[in-house]
Write a structure and sequence with these properties.
Length: about 160
């Protein structure tokens, strides 16, 4: 099965899942940054054709980090629309939350899938010190009880 994404002239669309992974006492979350990036993101990836989003997030987390047997619940939906002169991008992301009850042996580590993906456990009370994409996702990180719908339009 292929990822759900398409391109049409100067337009790109993708359907993603991401995960807010808390440590056992919900004081830290797991973020990642690519080698050539200046911002962090939540772990996750593209949903494949005919794949349920819940199966996609479990697959992505297993592939990238090796964590399995996690129970995910919906945290929210985010829509991102990026407009610039040469390219327009629209992305829909379903974000799930879960708790990792395992021992955190390293604060930073590489993905088991790709060595350009760098993971970091970040203290939740210091989250404002980090540049995170999408920008408005921070409201979803701290509120564990409400399902959010976030829309972000960016003109470059």
């Amino acid at each position: 099965m292929e990822d759900i994404k398409y391109e049409n002239n100067n337009f790109k669309f993708s359907y993603r899942v991401s995960a807010i992974i808390y440590n056992s006492d919900k004081t830290k979350i797991l973020l990642f940054m690519g080698n050539d990036s200046d911002y962090y993101m939540l772990p996750g990836g593209k949903v494949k054709e005919l794949e349920k989003s819940t199966d996609a997030i479990k697959r992505e987390i297993k592939e990238e980090i090796g964590f399995d047997n996690l129970d995910f619940e919906l945290a929210g939906i985010s829509e991102e629309i990026v407009k610039n002169n040469n390219e327009n991008i629209q992305q829909i992301t379903l974000t799930y939350r879960c708790i990792y009850n395992g021992e955190i042996t390293k604060e930073t580590f590489k993905s088991i899938e790709s060595d350009w993906i760098n993971f970091k456990w970040v203290n939740l009370n210091e989250i404002n010190q980090y540049k995170i994409h999408p920008q408005n996702i921070q409201s979803m990180l701290k509120d564990c009880n409400t399902i959010k719908h976030l829309v972000e339009e960016i003109n470059i």
